[in-house]
Amino acid sequence: MKPRARAKYRSCPRHFVGCLTVCQQQDMGTETSGRTKWQAALGCALLTTIYAAAAFEGQARTYRLWYYVPAAALAGAFIASRIAERPHGKPRWIIDAVVAILCLSRPLTGQPPVSGHAWFCIHALLTCRDPLAKILAIAVTALTCYAKIVLWHWDPTLWPGLAAGVISGLAWRFCARAQGG
Hints:
Transmembrane segments: 38-59, 65-84, 132-152, 158-176
Order of helices and strands: EEHHHHHH
Keywords: Membrane, Transmembrane, Transmembrane helix
């Protein structure tokens, strides 16, 4: 049997006694939620990979693997980050829901005529505090810009997507400031 890990007791500057401080408990929780965010990111990426491999062949499969899998990893980290950072006010949840619905509708319907990847990446970059979500947002933004500028010769949906991300991200931040969060 594996020995149980013991919490280290130390003097707490707030309580002046040997105890498991609130800060230590929060640190332990943050470590777990960090692991959860990685698991969510990898899980979403894995599910998207399985879907692409099972449902598509050739170039269609390759496209989904290099373009959609990184965005799915960002989505997993974003969702886990939002759950860990809660509570958020109702206006911020509404903004997140509208962004998610419109960005997910883009590959399914072709509407709205903005890049869903660019919109979601910039929104995540401006609103997430989690380092994993920010790093993934930067990486997916770079991938999206490369694809839309170099591979697809200045795809016209890039700039509206970036602008939509800035608008939704700033609106989310405004709501956060108005709610004192």
